[in-house]
């Protein structure tokens, strides 16, 4: 089987990339930039460091199974990497936090992914666009 390790980049967690600390999460949540869907909210602000950073709040009380929480996290990380790396020009550097706001267990995997994809599309939407 092929080695599936990924080299650290500004979008992946390398040792030189500072992680989002509790103060950073609070600052992102205070930012007015956000997009909401039925089960999630996505908050962002310009990054104070020269890399884009991503954090998640996926509470155990909202979805009890680790399988579902890990699925949400995998899908969100993949969408963040796509959103941060596929812009036509150099993407703006942002701190982004995804928060689970409602139990998504009734959603199918594809519906959950579509909902998350719609939120991450809001990162590239012009200011004043759909929220």
Structure commentary:
The chain has a 4-stranded mixed beta sheet with strand order 1-2-4-3, sandwiched between helices. The radius of gyration is 15 Å and the shape is globular. The N and C termini lie far apart (43 Å). With 131 residues, it is of the alpha+beta class. Helix content is 32%, strand content 17%. It has helices at 22-30, 66-85, 109-121; strands spanning 34-36, 40-46, 53-57, 94-100. The protein is built from 3 helices and 4 strands, in the order αβββαβα.
Characterize the overall form: globular
Q: Tell me the number of structural domains.
A: 1
- Name the quaternary structure: single chain
Going by CATH, the architecture would be 2-Layer Sandwich
Q: In whole angstroms, how far apart are the ends? A: 43 Å
Averaging pLDDT over every residue, what do you get? 82
Helix share bin: 25-40%
Write the layout of secondary structure elements.
Blueprint: H1 22-30, E1 34-36, E2 40-46, E3 53-57, H2 66-85, E4 94-100, H3 109-121
Parallel strand pairs: 3-4
Antiparallel strand pairs: 1-2, 2-4
């Amino acid at each position: 089987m092929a080695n599936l390790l990924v080299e650290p980049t500004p979008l992946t967690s390398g040792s030189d990339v500072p992680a989002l600390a509790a103060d950073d999460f609070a600052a992102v949540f205070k930012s007015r930039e956000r997009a909401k869907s039925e089960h999630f909210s996505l908050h962002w602000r310009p990054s104070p460091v020269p890399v884009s950073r991503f954090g998640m709040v996926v509470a155990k009380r909202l979805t009890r199974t680790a399988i579902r929480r890990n699925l949400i996290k995998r899908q969100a990380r993949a969408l963040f990497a796509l959103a941060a790396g596929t812009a036509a020009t150099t993407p703006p550097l942002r701190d982004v936090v995804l928060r689970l706001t409602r139990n998504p267990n009734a959603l199918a995997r594809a519906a959950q992914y579509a909902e998350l994809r719609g939120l991450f599309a809001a990162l590239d939407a012009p200011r004043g666009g759909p929220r």
